[in-house]
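TEACHING EXERCISE
Course module: macromolecular assemblies
Task: Read the component lines below, then compare them to the predicted structure of the full complex.
Student: A.B.
Group: 4
Components provided:
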Amino acid sequence: MTSPFDIIVVGGGNAALCAAIEAAEAGARVLILEAAPKPYRGGNSRHTRNFRCMHDGPLSVLIDSYGEDEYFEDLMRVTKGNTDEVLARMVIRSSQECLPWMAAHGVRFQPSLSGTLSLGRTNAFFLGGGKALVNAYYRTAQAMGVEVRYEAEVVHVGMTEGVFTHVDLKNGTQIEGRALVIASGGFQADLDWLAEAWGPAALNFLIRGTPYNRGVVLRDMLDQGAGSVGDPTQCHAVAIDGRAPKFDGGIVTRLDCVPFSVVVNKEGQRFYDEGEDVWPKRYAIWGRLVAAQPDQVAYSIIDARSRDLFMPSVFPPIEADTLDALRIRLGLPEETLHTIETFNAACGAGKFSPQELDGLATKGIMPAKTNWARPLTQPPYYAYELRPGVTFTYLGLQVDETARVRANGVPLANVWAAGEIMAGSILGEGYLAGFGMTIGTVFGRIAGREAADHVS
Amino acid sequence: MSAETLQDARRQIEICNACRYCEGYCAVFPAITRQTAFADGDITQLANLCHNCRGCYYACQYTEPHEFAINLPRVLAEVRTDSWKEFAWPSGFARAYDKHGVVMGSIVVLCLCVLIFVAGSLQRASGGEGFYAYMSHTLMVAIFAPAFVLPLLATFVSLRRYWVHVGGGPITLHSWRCALQDVAHMRDLGGGQGQGCNYEDEDRFSNARRIAHQLTLWGFVLCFASTASGTILHYVFDLPAPYGLLSLPKLFGIPGGLMLSAGTLWMIWLKLCADGGLSDARVRGGDMAFVLLLFAVSTSGLLLYASAGTGRMPHLLTFHLATVLALFLTLPYSKFVHGFYRLAATLWNADAT
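Instructor-supplied answer key:
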């Protein structure tokens, strides 16, 4: 073997970097192939902000405790049981030991950000966010001798009889290696692929993260018989500001106003309980809800009393002194007024309490609003346009507890996968804040160690 | 102030307020989260609170080529300079902030050299000891007292204008204590956890700039203490210069001078390494001139001490006094004011928290 590299890591986000660092620490010669140019390196990790971490007692910036069972129950609730319990519990248990490892490799943590107090016990926030974490890992990896190439898009994984031999890059270069770690994310930036499952509606979706996760290596591996997990038709989508950029809008395009608002579709109809639960537990379902509406659009309407109850959005709301003027500005039919009048009439008396489930519910309308149901009566009125923003896709590569990829029913000799590309094994549905980074860190480290073991 | 720059700063701050990932780096981001709307005064205050540590820039998901094109360190630096120009008194001198700083500084030094040398020649026969053999104490005071008092007066007027613009009220003792502590530790160059700035090597955290700045700041304070103690010895105790090695002026002055020279030299080197795109390009020359002038002040002072009793002393004395004079005369219209404005902004912030 003439290649100067033992291990090729495809991808340049959190999981890829954790794998590269572990492998380099074990003495392997590692090459990272990142499809993005340097300013956009890090995949979706650059948009993340925290790490969901089990802990038996106060740990770093985390308060109290967050045990394995509670963590697993949270996961079961969001995935509706669509998870692999063995892998999931392993990730959860490993997370506790990962946090100090992350800190030792340059990641800095901070207490939960203002407006996110509900996560202060369960999620350790990165000082500066995910890009700061990615920067720290690149520094650490490169100091260990890991080589990094940017704008190096892998288009094909070369294998002979189930043994990885080389990768082909888009620019025609072929690079040989003795082990492969695939950490190149999902396919959510490939709108045509999304349209295979969602139809033309997918073309109206916004992609919250990197435009470089096009699933090229995922498809190549599936074409070569790699085992898959996750529903190929599903993606995780949240409702975001409709004025967000097509790609890479990230955190600032989210809207936290829904629980305090009335949400109507373009026909002026309500379609779901806006106050079902606290927003951190509900934002993840709203992408699909909006995606199912005509033209994949909805409008969240509040009155002046709710203006300061949620974090400011990057775009100012549409504003008007009357509901009629507001609906005209939004291009909504007159039916909208009837919907809001009916809603207002269904609101009862009670104490409105924005920080908790206040039980202030509507009576006699469908769908009901079961918390924070306060009539829209105080001008000026404000509205935000909502559209589905895709965070990630579920389809991925099947792996075992050692992160090893399988093909045609048998484990591949020298191919491992980590991060979003295999997260569907554990997160079959829904999302748990900060859990993507946990899966990426745990499996990235495992993949790196296993690959290094293989080549040593 | 440039309305365009202010508007761009407002646009960027609103994006930051919707993100908040950088809350832990410095005082600017927590201050942003306390508001939802930002008047011109708010933006000016945030700009002067920013210490250009750049942690937020390298952590930002939205820097160019992203269409949001966030570059908060630069836009706040531009607002900051604009605000200093706006509040400068008398207003005509505000042009001095512009980038011809190196040329301007050199000319001032050169002119003053000539001026003081000529004045000194006239006084040479005065019969004093040490320095005063070359320039009488009375002449020095006649030149330096107004050159010290007038710029401070001008700066005071500017700061009052600033305070009105940002809506500052009476300052409590508690605010003074908090703000002075922050300044003494250069807390806002600490990166939030003591890891320092992202300055001379992109996203690598380092305390180099913080330490260099501390050497400069405290070196300057010691040099100032040296001069002040000399003045007291002269007038109160009737003990004119020259002073011995174990006298207060020397005990303050020698370490202070060494610190100031080392700190400014280090600062210059760090500035040369740092990415110029994250600061206000218009005043790069002027900022550099200010640091060079500080270096010239302390280094000539040290050389002056070393040259006691030699023939070089009169020339060094002239040069040293000229640099000191230039430093104070340009004080209200050079980078020097950043210290006063930052203290004011920190006081305002301490009051708001």
